[in-house]
Specification:
CATH class of the largest domain: Alpha Beta
Strand content: 15-25%
Order of helices and strands: EEEHEEHEHHHEHEHEEH
Radius of gyration: 18 Å
Strand order of the largest sheet: 6-7-8-3-9-10
CATH architecture of the largest domain: 3-Layer(aba) Sandwich
Number of helices: 8
CATH topology of the largest domain: Rossmann fold
Number of strands: 10
Distance between the termini: 22 Å
Largest sheet: 6 strands, mixed
Structural class: alpha/beta
Length: 263
């Protein structure tokens, strides 16, 4: 993807910490995926995570949304406390949403129903009652935000990859999260839509005070969109700083050792 079609966004001012990782290590079997990672993610800012395949980027997102428990280390969320506390973890999950790389949609359901699933924890899990008018309106507003309101009653299985990815984005935004995580959210979008929806994410951060952590493979987009860039290599922090400091030489150092393993 060329950065020529995307205009830079203004830099955001410094922010307090939204979530802090202290000496976090994640092991899967005999493999160590994250190694002694200590990071602070600023509240209300955009952090882009970049690095070669297998560096641990998707694992980092899974740790941040509470789906993966570290082998050691602590994760502390502002206003909730350490995620080892079940109450803090429950509160964190209510305030977090994720845009998945593979969309994680149900093909037989409509676009509106898929977005409503983002609000499933707002009603009793065994309820047979129709969704309330208020929640349906909230889902419709989220579809309008990604310019797919006209597809509300279309089965998702009939939609294009780009449309499916935008529905995944709407399902995350409908939760009105404090922390929004995104795993390569622009992979199925053409360059014109990348500009539109990177702007939508920037607006969500600016207007709602959302903290965004986004995994990106397109380095130029990371430089243009993010307030801060984190570079991962072999499960370790290889770079952390503002986009202006992530120059060509820093990028070359980060990608100098490419592994064929996946996150």
């Amino acid at each position: 993807m060329s950065g020529g079609n995307i205009l830079p966004f203004p830099s955001a001012p410094p922010h307090p910490a939204a979530i802090t990782l202290s000496s976090v290590t994640v092991r899967r079997g005999s493999r160590t995926v994250l190694r002694d990672v200590s990071l602070t993610f600023p509240a209300g800012a955009i952090t882009a995570v970049v690095g070669p395949s297998g560096a641990g980027k998707s694992t980092l997102l899974a740790v941040l949304n509470g789906l993966l428990v570290p082998s050691c280390g602590t994760i502390t969320v502002a206003g909730s406390g350490p995620l080892e506390d079940p109450a803090a973890l429950r509160n964190h999950r209510l305030r977090t949403a994720t845009i998945f790389q593979d969309h994680a949609l149900i093909d037989r359901l409509s676009a509106l129903d898929n977005v409503l699933l983002g609000l499933a924890d707002r009603r009793h899990p065994l309820s047979l009652l129709p969704w309330s008018e208020g929640l349906r309106r909230q889902a419709a507003d989220a579809l309008a935000e990604v310019e797919l309101l006209h597809r509300s009653y279309e089965r998702v299985g009939r939609l294009s990859g780009g449309e499916r990815q935008r529905i995944g984005m709407a399902r995350a935004l409908v939760r009105e999260p404090s922390l929004l995580l995104a795993d390569e959210p622009f992979a199925s979008l053409d360059p014109a839509l990348v500009r539109t929806f990177s702007g939508a994410l920037r607006a969500a951060v600016g207007n709602r005070g959302v903290t965004l952590v986004v995994v990106l493979h397109h380095i130029e987009l990371a430089r243009l969109l993010a307030d801060r860039i984190i570079g991962l290599a072999d499960g370790r922090i290889a770079f952390t700083g503002v986009p202006q400091d992530f120059d060509v030489s820093a990028e070359a150092r980060l990608f100098s050792t490419i592994t064929t393993k996946k996150d």
